[in-house]
Amino acid sequence: MLSDPLFIIVALACLGVAVILAIGIGTFGKEGRDNAKRANKLMRWRIIAQFVAVLLILLFVYIRRQGGQ
Hints:
Organism: Roseovarius gahaiensis
Largest sheet: none
Number of strands: 0
Keywords: Membrane, Transmembrane, Transmembrane helix
Strand content: under 5%
Number of helices: 2
Number of domains: 1
Order of helices and strands: HH
Radius of gyration: 16 Å
Protein name: Twin transmembrane helix small protein
Oligomer: single chain
Distance between the termini: 9 Å
InterPro entries: Hypoxia_induced_domain
Shape: elongated
């Protein structure tokens, strides 16, 4: 499975979501109006990245069930 390029893309997408989440949570802890705006923007990006990651996971499962690799 580690040699499957789609699996690697899915794993990187999930890692990207985790990184955006961690940065966003860290930004929420800081005071200031600019940090609040930045944290909200990061959380919006997290939702988009999470949506893409879920689509990739669904694609991976679909291809696997169809008999691909």
